[in-house]
Amino acid sequence: MTAPTATTMALQVPQQHQAAALTQRGARLEVVARPTPRPGPGELLLRVDVCAVNRADYKGRDADFPPNPQFPTVLGGDAGGVVVAVGPGEARLRPGDRVVAWAGPFFRGGDPNTGAFQQYTLVDAPNAARVPPDIALADAAALPVATFTAITALTTILGLPLTAVGAHAHGLLVWGAASSVGTVAVQAARSLGLRVYATAAPANHAYLATLGAHTLVDYSDPDAAVAEILAAARRDGVILTQAICTVAAALAPTVAILAALRSDGVTDAGATASRAKVASVDMPPADFDAAAASAAAQGVDVAFVMPPLDQATRVPHMARCFQWLEDNLASGALVPSPPARVVGRGLDAINQALDVLREGVSCAKLVVTLDHESSTTL
Question: What pLDDT score does 376 carry?
C-alpha cells in the first residue's frame, strides 16, 4: 500500500473493486471492475458491506427516471459499511468508523465513483452517520434515504422544528406509514410530541404502534379511512393540519382529511385555520400539478419532498438530517425500520432485489450484503 498523501488512510484500500453498474439505458445492472477512487476535501471513501434498495433505484434502472446524465453509472443511495479513508479537512469521521450513508449519484452528475451498488464508494462526509456497535449494519442501512426524506418533509415542507412541539395537542397524518419513510416519520413525530394518525395494512398495525403511532387505520378502503381518521381527530381535539403521504395514489384522501379538518377551524388560538400542508414522498404522478391545484383551492398546499437543489442550502440541511440520525440512533429514540430482509449476498443479487421491490413489498427493507474477495489490493 502506498503512503497516504492528501487523504488520511488507516485501512487497506484496493486499487480496483467490483461494481453493479448501469452501462446503458434500460439495461440490467452488470458487474464490472472499477478503479477505486480516493476521497477529496469533504469526502469519505466507504467500504460498502451492505446496501439497501429503493424505488428510485429500479426506476433509474428500468425507466431512466430521474434521467441518468452519464453511462456507465452506479445507482444506489442506502449504504452501510466502514470508512476506510477520509479527505483533507474531515474531522468528524475517521477510518474505522461504522456508518450508514447516502451515496446516491443524483447531485454528483451520475459520477460512477458514487452510488451504493459497489464495493467502495465516495460519500459526502455530511451524508454519513455513525452506527452504534449493538446495531447491525444490515438493519441500519434502511435508514439514510428514509431519514433525510422524512426529516426534509417535516422541516422544509411542513415547517416543524426538530424539538418537541407539544404533548399531543398537534397531530401528524402519515399515509402509508409502513414504508421506509413512513416508519421514520412516525418515530420522528413521536419524538416531537405529535399525536400520530397512520394508515397501513392491518397486519402492520401492531408494529407501527411500537414505533409511536397512536391511531392506526386500514387504508384498503380510502373513503372509510378518511371517515375514521376524521372521527378520531375530532374526538381527540387534535390540531391536524399536516401530513406526509408516501403513496402517490393516496394524495386525494390525504388532502380530503386535512381540508375537512381545516374547515372545522381548529387552531392553537381557536381562530380561523391557516393553510394545511402535505409533503408528498412518492414520485409525482402525471396529474400531480392538477391534484396540487385542486388541493390548493381547498386550502391545502402540496409539495414534493426532495433535498434542496441549491448546494449551499443542501449541504447544511443534509448534515442536520444525518446528525439527527446519528444522535437518535445513539440515544435509542430511533430504531432501524422497517425490518430488514436480506435478499442475497454479492453484487449479482442487486438486480433480484430491485425486481422483488418492483413487484411490491410491505413493511420490509430489502438489503444485499457484499463481499470483498474480488477487490484487488495495492
Answer: 47
